Amino acid sequence: MRSRFFFRLVQRSLANRMGKWLTAVLAVAMGASLVSASLTLALGMRAKMGQALRAYGANILLVPAVGQAGAPLFVTMAEDVLGRLEELGRRLPVVAYSPLVYAVAEIGPQRVVLVGTWPDAMRRVNPGSRVEGGWISDRDTVAEAMVGSSIARKLGLAVGAPLTLTVRDRTGTFRVVGILSTGGSEDEQVFLTLRAAQALAGRAGQLSLIQVSALASDRRVEDIARVLEAGLPGVTARTQFRLAMAEERLLDRLSLLLGLIAGLVLVASALGVAAAVATSVLERTRDIGLMKALGAGRALVGRLFLAEAGAIGLAGGLLGGAAGLLLAQAIARSVFGSAVPYTTLPALASVGSGICIASVASLIPVRRAASVEPGIALRGE
């Protein structure tokens, strides 16, 4: 009976002051919306940013364990490792991987680095590569080649030109289907399919290294590399530290920036709620005095105002949670060109932060309300 009367009292108080409480609700909603938006972006941003950063290429290299002290160019590992890597990749945030075999080939008097790979996998691992012409058509072809832009300029090669490669006593003729430009070492290399390069170099079933492109959304790049190394016998995982660390720092700074903005808005929201509750206490001093004269204690008065603040926080949290989700989607679409996934955590956090903001901000005005002396209040002093 008492609890029912108490809730009716709170309901009537809120209804009678709906217009005045609206400002406090909007203040809470502003802070809660930033909490919701920042959490939604923080959770979805790592995956999106990781995908954007992956345009710069692989961030993990898998090389033969015996090649740790030197270049892996002539030290190879068995191609069978690809089957195990495929299984591990399903349990890890691995976007793509590209096996490579290296050899030194001759084009007339010119020596070049010959690279055999899966063209489709290379394209996924290095999506930022620019190609004049086209990519090698499939993994099984043995008649097509791609050349780096620097090699093409030196030798005067164009798309459609024949290309004769010699590796020791083996010679093969291929048709240039594309000229690759990455701004890196690939511009000085010639590319064949893995099968064609292995046959020309006499390294059937052998790999020099494997490029892996992994997202650092759930686990750090170094952690992913350690898991791959532990699951692939005879293989050492090396992270591309500059790219990996740049990715981690960028994501951490963006998350920190969103958190700081949300914190500042929360402080401003708390000040707005505190001002609204303090104004309500001043306006209702006579009512508080009457309640105390009729037997209401300090605790009851305090619970009344805290309940009102909690209701304000709940309404502001729900409103802010919805607004924050829309704001996060708008930011994600403008920055990444697609929406970020929605989870329940930002909504719960926005409601929780709204209630906490309103409750904490009203503590000082509530203490003042609870300490009102009935006699003084009723005399209007």
What this model shows, in words?
This protein folds into two domains: 2-51 and 249-378, no CATH class; 59-237, no CATH class. It has helices at 2-16, 18-53, 81-91, 119-125, 149-155, 194-201, 221-231, 241-283, 285-293, 298-336, 344-361, 363-370, 374-378; strands at 60-64, 77-78, 94-107, 110-117, 130-133, 144-148, 162-167, 170-181, 189-193, 206-207, 209-214, 235-239. The chain is rod-shaped and about 110 Å long. The strands form two sheets. Strands 1, 3, 4, 5, 6, 7, 8, 9, 11 and 12 form a ten-stranded mixed sheet that branches. Strands 2-10 form a two-stranded antiparallel ribbon. It is 57% helix and 19% strand. Helix 2 packs antiparallel against helix 8, helix 2 runs parallel beside helix 10 and helix 10 packs antiparallel against helix 11. With 381 residues, it is of the alpha+beta class. The longest helix has 43 residues, at 241-283.
